[in-house]
Design goal:
This protein is an alpha/beta fold and about 200 residues long. It contains 3 helices and 10 strands; from the N terminus they run E-E-H-E-H-E-E-E-H-E-E-E-E. The strands form 2 sheets. Strands 5-4-3-6-7-8 form a 6-stranded mixed beta sheet, with helices on both faces. A 4-stranded antiparallel beta sheet has the order 1-2-10-9. The protein binds inosinic acid and magnesium ion. The site of magnesium ion (MG) has 2 residues, from loops.
Length: about 200
Amino acid sequence: MTGARAVNDKTRHGDKESVRVLITAGRIQKRIRTLAKEIRRDFPGERLHLVSVLKGGVFFLTDLARNVPGEVSFDFIAVASYGQNTHSSGQVRLTRDLDSSIEGRTVIVVEDILDTGMTLQYLLRLFQQRKPKHLRVAVLLDKPERRIAAVHADYVGFTIPNEFVVGYGLDYSERYRNLPYVGVLTLTGGAKSGKRE
Ligand code: IMP
Ligand code: MG
């Protein structure tokens, strides 16, 4: 028994949505404990400034922060990429900036998923200009098949296939973020599917 339940739901538009568990809550937590230790080992004795991307990265940030020993601070940024559905256009714009300067700090960008890489490419360029001492990237999920931008994550929770996933912060039109596990979303009855080209 995994303890994780799949979700079946019918949308307002009549499409049937179902979520199949891909990574259980237990596996996520175990992996995060390992990543947190790795990050601390790479920067012993330094204050780590975790910068998360709203809203999807917040679950990962809070669990990561609780497992990193020593001094940690955090901040949040928000970006919008155009499109509300399972397809993204690759256009990124800043909708909420950080509260404080990152100059001279050891910054770990904490993201839910590295997909095309457009979001992280945009953020890394922005942050690099602000002269942090170190700039690293931690992502819970990596979908390498979809990569367009040459972006590399230093810490990766899980490498996953090209499927549209929800849960643990990840949404489909703002829903499903609260699932404690990561699942593959499938839409049937309409033209959409969880698999993306
Ligand atoms: P990228 O810019 O294409 O790398 O995508 C990054 C953002 O797209 C993530 O922070 C998510 O908000 C969203 N995204 C990409 N893939 C998925 C997915 O499978 N499910 C939900 N959101 C996703
Ligand atoms: Mg997101």
